[in-house]
Write a structure and sequence with these properties.
The complex is a heterodimer. Chain A contains 14 helices and eight strands. Chain A is an alpha/beta fold. Helices cover 25% and strands 24% of the residues of chain B. Classes of the chains: A alpha/beta, B alpha/beta. Chains A and B meet through helix 2, helix 3 and helix 13 of A and helix 1 and helix 3 of B.
Chain lengths: 312, 280
């Protein structure tokens, strides 16, 4: 089970704020803490946002196309139309997140001006910069970013991310990559926690992570910010699996609105995340959900089709 | 008293939100020297997700999180009615922070379309997301007069302010008359939801009915400075926004002491629980 995230985020994460942040890291990371034990659902319009809210979503992610459609339709995937995001913000009272392209700091400025509650600098959209990520500390709005391993997670936190999620493989309905990414992060933290300081410095160099943040994760035995599962969660069992692997909450993208009975599946996944340790509840909520999203088998995909490879 | 009477179990509602943070601060508070000469107790702190777990509790914290999520999940987990009984029938000590304050209010506005279920217990109306969205979230140093104690100088928030965090926070926009039944005038308002009433089950609990709402803390000047000030019934900003209230067994704060590492309010509240358990 996951180690506790101490009530004060460690000094490493804040010390990297270099004093320029408009809003303190506590306030940014605090909203992520309020989302713990919750489900954040991808929605493409106000109607879906209302279904998500009635199902008990802790927040919604406003975007024009869910990852499964981005995959199917191809082309360049960009930040959504601000009008669509605003319509969703007006339709619900829960927090609204929106995605910006990796490295596209102007999309982030626009989303902040629109007033979204969280920005996801996301590999699901087509990257705008193949070297740099957005410098996230100066924004008032907090950021969530994806990771496949510990080094990537700590680089994002160092840039100012106040929340982390696994990348998984979005739009597939195949949970295997999310599991791989969560297990990789956990195994690397476990390894770091056994190392002496000189060895830890070597590891920091090897995984390309700031030493202070690596040391913090090693001491806490977990990431120093809230960490959600994302990318391929399609069933209540998938969601509970990620929770039992130590995630603090779950993003569900295409899994809900690409399934047969979206409202019922959304409710079931919310119940599954609260009662993730109770197989009887999980059995009950897994009944009669209808068709799950069809899904793509990640093992049969070309490497070039994998969204998780985006990000540096 | 037997040894058993000194064992007290406090639960934290763990349906969704920052319950881990409250559990950490409760454990920290239990190690701090207490404020008064009440008897020492053996504390047990548990996560509450089921009616069975709630039944073990002598006191309960409802944490921050999304109040709509918590009320929907509570209803689907058959926990909503047991929570109402815990607060309004058995009148056990309860503390709600942020979303928890919303759930403990008898009346709330700016809820989601179609409204939301409330537990109730505090005769107040809360205004959800009063200060605005996340970009309006903030930290503030608070003076909390109720923490002052002759025993403990470090609990004087004039000397050592209580640094606190407000995240998409609600405020108490109106103190309502202390009714025995449902808040009928509130119920008649559009866009305002109310909690159902429940009959208290003991003489002790009946005394709680009609107990006044005490304003425990205010935040001066913040609403006036808001760029897009929302119209609310509570416009007399000179006194500031009401951010902490108590009525009999129910305590609510609109901010998050659980995000600060400062356990002084938890120490104070555990003393209230200790006194309540001792008194029954």
């Amino acid at each position: 089970m996951a180690a506790e995230l101490p009530v004060i985020n460690g000094h490493g994460a804040q010390a990297n704020g270099n004093g320029e942040s408009a809003t303190s890291f506590t306030v940014k990371a605090g909203l992520a803490r309020m989302l713990q034990g919750g489900v954040i659902m991808d929605v493409v319009n106000a109607e879906q946002a209302r279904i998500a809210e009635e199902a008990g979503a802790a927040a919604v992610m406003a975007l024009e196309r869910v990852p499964a459609d981005i995959r199917a339709q191809g082309g360049v995937a960009r930040m959504s139309d601000p009008r669509m995001i605003q319509e969703i913000m007006e339709a619900v009272t829960i927090p609204v997140m929106a995605k910006a392209r990796i490295g596209h700091f102007v999309e982030c400025q626009i989303l902040e001006a629109v007033g979204v509650d969280y920005i996801d600098e996301s590999e699901v959209l087509t990257p705008a910069d193949d070297v740099h990520h957005v410098e996230k500390h100066p924004y008032k709005v907090p950021f969530v970013c994806g990771c496949r391993n510990l080094g990537e997670a700590l680089r994002r936190i160092s840039e100012g991310a106040a929340m982390i999620r696994t990348k998984g493989e979005a739009g597939t309905g195949d949970v295997v990559e999310a599991v791989k990414h969560m297990r990789t992060v956990t195994a690397e933290i476990l390894k770091a926690s056994t190392l002496s300081e000189p060895e830890l410095r070597v590891m920091a160099k090897e995984i390309g992570a700031p030493y202070d943040l690596l040391k913090e994760a090693a001491t806490l035995k977990r990431l120093p910010v809230v960490n959600f599962a994302a990318g391929g969660v399609a069933t209540p069992a998938d969601a509970a699996l990620m929770m039992q692997l130590g995630c603090d909450g779950v993003f569900v993208g295409s899994g809900i609105f690409k399934s047969g009975n979206a409202a019922k599946r959304a409710r079931a996944i919310v119940q599954a995340v609260t009662h993730f340790k109770d197989p009887k509840v999980l059995a009950e909520v897994s009944k009669d959900l209808g068709e799950a999203m069809v899904g793509l088998n990640v093992a049969k995909m070309d490497e070039g089709e994998k969204l998780a490879k985006r990000g540096w | 008293m037997t040894q058993d009477q000194f064992a007290i179990t406090v639960g934290v509602l763990a349906l969704q939100g920052a319950f881990s943070e409250h559990l950490q601060l409760l454990r920290q508070a239990a190690t701090v020297k207490r404020l008064s000469a009440l008897p020492d107790v053996k504390w047990t702190f548990i996560e509450v997700r089921t009616p069975e777990q709630l039944a073990l509790c002598d006191g309960l914290i409802i944490p921050g999180g999304e109040s709509t999520t918590m009320s929907l999940v509570a209803a689907r987990s058959n926990l909503l009615e047991p929570l109402r009984e815990f607060v309004k029938v058995h009148r056990k000590p309860v503390w709600g922070t942020c979303a928890g304050l919303i759930l403990l209010a008898e009346s709330a506005n700016r809820t989601k379309k179609g409204g939301q279920e409330l537990i109730g217990g505090l005769d107040v109306r809360v205004n959800r997301n009063h200060f605005g969205r996340q970009v309006e979230s903030f930290e503030a140093n608070l003076d909390l007069p109720f923490l002052r104690s002759e025993e403990r100088e470090d609990f004087d928030t004039n000397r050592v302010p209580f640094k606190s965090v407000f995240i998409r926070a609600p405020v108490v926009e109106m103190i309502l008359p202390a009714y025995e039944g449902v808040q009928v005038e509130e119920e008649a308002k559009d866009e305002t939801v109310v909690a159902p009433s429940r009959k208290p089950d003991s003489e002790e609990a009946k005394k709680a009915i009609g107990a006044p709402v005490e304003v425990m803390a205010t935040l001066p000047g913040r609403s006036a400075a808001l760029p897009n000030k929302v119209a609310t019934a509570h416009t007399e900003d000179k006194v500031g926004d009401i951010i902490a209230v108590r009525q009999a067994n129910v305590f609510g704060t609109s901010f998050h002491p659980e995000l600060t590492g400062d356990s002084r309010i938890h120490v104070w509240w555990l003393d209230q629980v200790r006194a309540a358990v001792g008194a029954i």
